[in-house]
Structure to design on (201 residues):
């Protein structure tokens, strides 16, 4: 009887499983956007004296990755010698931040035939044809563009504008005869320079 109970327990344990959730962006996509934001704000300066207390207004900085980008802006201002204020009442100036772009671009170049989806009847059913190429190259690019303006925290008087801050972070991979691959297949945590894709296997 004990052996039967043990057998049932083993079977039940063997059927147990865990589930995982999948985020909207892969780690590589998130890192591409983060690195582009870091590059965009590198060396950020404001048209006010260094040491001024600045409140970063991010109400108009919306979208995926905007929280990281806002923190990157705050870090760049701190490195440039500005003091950060937690609210407008403590600030000398307000930096109102906006995003022109914070997203991904992808480009593929193919020597041969790219993947195709061909309609096969009037009901718009399609058949997929895989890539048939001698060589293909894939670029994945994180793109960031931020801009904004500065105004007096007490009076609202304009103090100046900040020209667009632009950053791109690119990884490139290659494929030969649809089988041999090399180059940057993914973005690596902490990596600031992806290096030369031709040398990475």
């Amino acid at each position: 009887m004990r052996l039967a109970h043990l057998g049932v327990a083993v079977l039940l344990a063997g059927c147990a499983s865990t589930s995982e959730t999948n985020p909207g962006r892969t780690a590589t996509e998130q890192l591409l956007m983060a690195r582009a934001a870091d590059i965009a704000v590198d060396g950020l300066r404001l048209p006010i004296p260094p040491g001024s207390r600045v409140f970063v207004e991010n109400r108009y900085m919306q979208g995926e990755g905007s929280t990281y980008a806002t923190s990157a802006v705050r870090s760049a201002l701190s490195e440039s010698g500005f003091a950060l204020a937690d609210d407008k009442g403590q600030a000398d100036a307000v930096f109102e931040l906006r995003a022109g772009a914070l997203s991904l671009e992808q480009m593929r170049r193919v020597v041969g035939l790219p993947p195709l989806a061909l309609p096969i009847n009037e009901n718009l059913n399609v058949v997929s044809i895989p890539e048939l190429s001698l060589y293909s190259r894939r670029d994945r690019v994180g793109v960031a563009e931020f801009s904004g303006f500065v105004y007096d925290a007490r009076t609202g008087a304009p103090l100046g504008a900040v020209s667009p801050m632009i950053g791109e972070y690119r990884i490139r991979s290659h494929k030969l005869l649809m089988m041999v691959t090399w180059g940057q297949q993914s973005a690596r945590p902490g990596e600031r320079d992806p290096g030369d894709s031709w040398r990475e296997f």
Notes: The mean pLDDT is 88. The first strand starts at residue 53 and ends at 57. The chain has three helices and eight strands. The helical segments are 2-14, 27-41, 66-79.
